[in-house]
Amino acid sequence: MNRIIILCDGTWNRADAQSPTNVVRMAQCIKPTGDDGISQFVIYIQGVGTQQGATALTRMIDRFAGGALGLGLSNNVLEAYRSLMFCYEPDDEIFIMGFSRGAYTARSLVGLIRSAGIASVSKLDELPEIMARYRSRETITHPTTIDSLTFRRRISQEVTTSQEELVWRAEQYGEQKQVLSIAYLGIWDTVGAMGLPGFLGWFAHIFNKGYRFHDTKLSRLVSSARHAVAIDERRRFYPPTLWDEMNDMNGEATGNERPYIQEWFSGNHGSVGGGGEIRGLSSITFDWVAAGAMNAGLDLRKDLLQNIQNERVAVAPLHPRLPMKGVLGAVGRAIMFFFLTDREGPRQVGEVSDWVRWRTLEDDSYRPNTLDNVMDDLLD
Fold first, then answer.
1. Which of 75, 154, 224, 349 could serve as 377's disulfide partner, Cβ 3.0–4.6 Å?
2. Which residue, 224, 4, 198, 242, is CA-closest to 103?
3. What angle do the packed helices 101-116 and 146-155 form, to 10 degrees?
4. Which has more confidence, 28 or 206?
5. How much is the pTM?
């Protein structure tokens, strides 16, 4: 048995950046071999818009198309899935993590696995059909149909994606296979929508029609999951893609005993996912997502983890980069003013991190509109 950790970075983010994101810091913390002797293999997928191309023009186009429109995300999902095909064996533990559009990539990868299982490496030539079925919005290609069960039996021969599929194979073919389970899905501030932002109305609706196939719902294919969401991100281009399935999935579990947790944290998009010079808030969210991964069995370097924990500051600046100064900074802020809106925040105080409660008590000026529904409870 091995542990396979797939890490999907955010828009414009790559491993060699001077200020690494939480995705890169996670990669640095993972031991090649756990204390239990189990090998831990890292697969790193750099973010969309990281200037891929042979010429300056193609790199510029990639940066714009990937950054502004999210184009290239589907290719990242495919790259991650193909890498999994090469190294996966039954009994392996799978961990998937990501930030920003990389979080969307991570969630879409889970959706692709739910659709296709994990195809045998001998089925590489089937990848076009695997992706075509995933992209399809026809009822017949839904993961639970007989057509999909039959398709997965042909390409994902060693594992099933649910107990129901396991029973179906046993009853129909007398096969005894394993049920695939993703040990952990850990993500920072999912944004992802491909194409144009929704606030552009009907034009965005038409333009984005071809990108709506991604399945980013949380399912029981995942054993445990955590999602850190930014309270103070106000750019309209960065709306969060939230989970709304967790209450039913968690059942009677409460607090940190819940296998599926989505919490709101202070800071904007970069403060939650990392990648800036100021790490006080991103270290908080790193530690929280890392704790979920360790609970699921991932072994991290305790020295690096301790260094990150020492960086945590509840009242750190809400933006990870130093503000733009001078005329250009003033112009930039003036333009952005027209593209700002508060996120629709949590409905229950239990969805808010304890670190946020401490900040509201320590800093009387910290009263973001996103927390209007729960502010009275936070101050009790």
1. 349
2. 242
3. 90
4. 28
5. 0.90
Higher confidence at residue 251 or residue 225? 225
Tokens of 335: 């333009």
Nearest of 290, 263, 275, 276 to residue 355 by alpha carbon: 263
Closest to 312 measured CA to CA, from 353, 340, 370, 253: 353
Give the orientation angle of helix 127-135 with respect to helix 146-155, to 10 degrees: 160
Average pLDDT over every residue of 48-73: 55
Tokens 């961990």 identify what position?
Answer: 95
pLDDT at 66: 46
Pairwise CA distance, residues 24 & 236, whole Å: 26
Strand partners, 44: 7
Tally of domains in the chain = 1
Alpha helices in 39-195 (DSSP H): 56-69, 73-87, 101-116, 127-135, 146-155, 163-173
CB 193 within 8 Å of CB 208: yes
| Amino acid of residue 149 | L
Q: Would residue 327 count as lying in a domain?
A: no
**Would you say residue 372 lies in a domain?**
no
Q: How far apart are CA 229 and CA 227, in angstroms?
A: 6
Q: What is the DSSP string of 364-380?
A: TT---GGGTTTHHHHH-
Question: In terms of residue numbers, what domain contains 260?
Answer: 3-118+180-311
72 — pLDDT class (breaks 50, 70, 90): confident
- Render the burial of 161-195: b for 16+ CB within 10 Å, e for the rest: bbeebbebbeeeeeeebeebebbbbbbbbbbbbbb
Average confidence (pLDDT) over 350-363 = 96
Distance between CA atoms of residues 196 and 76, nearest Å: 19
* Residue 99, domain member (yes or no): yes
Q: Tell whether the model's pLDDT for residue 68 goes beyond 50.
A: no
Per cent of the chain over pLDDT 90 is: 73
Is residue 301 within 8 Å of residue 353, measured between CB atoms? no
d(CA 322, CA 337) in angstroms, rounded, equals: 18
Q: Is 127 exposed, middle or buried (0-12, 13-18, 19+ CB in 10 A)?
A: middle
Mean pLDDT of the chain: 88
Q: Is 220 helix (H, G, I), strand (E, B) or coil?
A: coil
Give domain status of residue 97, yes or no. yes
